[in-house]
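Following up on my earlier message about NDP. Here are the inputs again, as you asked, copied directly from the submission form:
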Amino acid sequence: MDIGSTATLNNGIEMPLLGLGVYLTPDGKICRQAVTEALDFGYRHVDTARIYENEKSVGKAIHESEIPREEIFVTTKLWNSDHGYDRTIAACKESLDRLGMDYVDCYLIHWPVEELRSESWRAMETLHEEGLCRSIGVSNYMIHHLEELMGECNVVPAANQVEFSPFLFQERLLAFCRSQGIMLQAYSPLTKGQRLDDPLLATIADRHGVTAAQVLIRWALQHDVVVLPKSQDPQRIRENGSIYGFELTEEEMQQLNGLDEGLRTSWDPTHQP
Ligand code: NDP
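Thanks, got it. Here's what our run produced:
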């Protein structure tokens, strides 16, 4: 495994296992520099969203990189206020305009908005059919949302992007996604920094001569999920991409799994009908 390693999605498309998250990365120079730094270091996957308000900078950095577009995996997301068939189609086109791209590699429903999500999914299928999105998926879907979708979709979602870390080890959801051929993507894999001083993490990190953040990213990869750490700091972007020189043992994986405390650092879709 290395920074170029990919997972094959249920539609045959390759998704790089490591992606740069850009939530809260300020639009403009800071975002462009972060994406440029990541691409220079070897990342080939960027995760943005309309609500992050930095699609323009992400697109600009990718264009300026001179890396062929087809070698970079770009995800963006449908925001909650853009649900409904026509609005979804329009929102995707608006995102493409801001990115300056003809297509995205993955378009995700950001949140399972009640009542409108089924209609929005039909629009996602249209966008996929028309080639504007090479793959389509969802985010913050729990098992009950996925069961509903599986019962009515023509295109099975390629991915489900959810919060996933040892402190929120969503084992049942992971198994369910796997059983349906849906790739789980781990967001907030570094707990937004909230648990980086955990003593077990420190012990394991010291043993391998790495940082707590690197242990968390490695833990996700060893669960065979796609992982999306965010950083806007050049040194930490490189640190987060330097996780291929060590391997967590089975015992360490089990110990880390045991840290689960149901920690959610942003929103909680558990009770979303
Ligand atoms: P992360 O868990 O990735 O943590 C990011 C925080 O950790 C930032 O404050 C960052 O600061 C800091 N950090 C990064 N690397 C290191 C390091 N090596 N050592 C110490 N601190 C570090 O949080 P996010 O919530 O941003 O999640 C990652 C990505 O997942 C998002 O950017 C977004 O793309 C996606 N996401 C999706 C959601 C969804 O609903 N679909 C919800 C939330 C996130 P600094 O930048 O200064 O390095």
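One observation from looking it over: The chain is about 40% helix and 15% strand. Hope that helps, and feel free to reply on this thread.
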